[in-house]
Structure prediction request, 225 residues.
Amino acid sequence: DAGVIQSPRHEVTEMGQEVTLRCKPISGHDYLFWYRQTMMRGLELLIYFNNNVPIDDSGMPEDRFSAKMPNASFSTLKIQPSEPRDSAVYFCASSLRGNVYGYTFGSGTRLTVV
Amino acid sequence: TQLLEQSPQFLSIQEGENLTVYCNSSSVFSSLQWYRQEPGEGPVLLVTVVTGGEVKKLKRLTFQFGDARKDSSLHITAAQPGDTGLYLCAGEETSGSRLTFGEGTQLTVNP
Prediction:
């Protein structure tokens, strides 16, 4: 298995532009998580899905952020419009049966909004 | 959201030394995990502890879960430069499957 695949690895965009981050979880995993990591706040959970259904989006900073999981093998995190304070590393993780076997993280997308 | 505090935040030691990293909370967790993260990569799971008082060993790494399941420690014996990285503890909330992460301990082992 190739693990959790995220794209792009790096994204530089101008303030006000729309940004879409992509994630392919491990096949067979039924949970998918989106985290954001910054020096100031560490790893923060943004939203998670179980069997493609959003379960908890209380960590999504504001309405500019949205996430979808149209099928078991794909998820997107969209920011529209982007702001400089959104600059961070965004991680996608997937797991089987919740936390029984731990999370498998992707390599992350480093987002810079200028 | 239950909070996890890790200490120390930064640790720089010489190869061969021993060290302990702590993870503390005022809340009870159903399980606790330790991850290691290297630059440019996502965190990688090292161990899961579930039972209060549980001790797990992974080569030179020893993990302990507190009796009350509120705290944990990671002890590394004879640290090596390859142990360098960000060590994160993560607790599973009793109410669901989400993990809450501590802010991490950045370990540097100098040759």
Observations:
- Chain B touches chain A through 20 residues (CB under 8 Å).
- The CA atoms of residues 30 and 94 of chain B lie 5 Å apart.
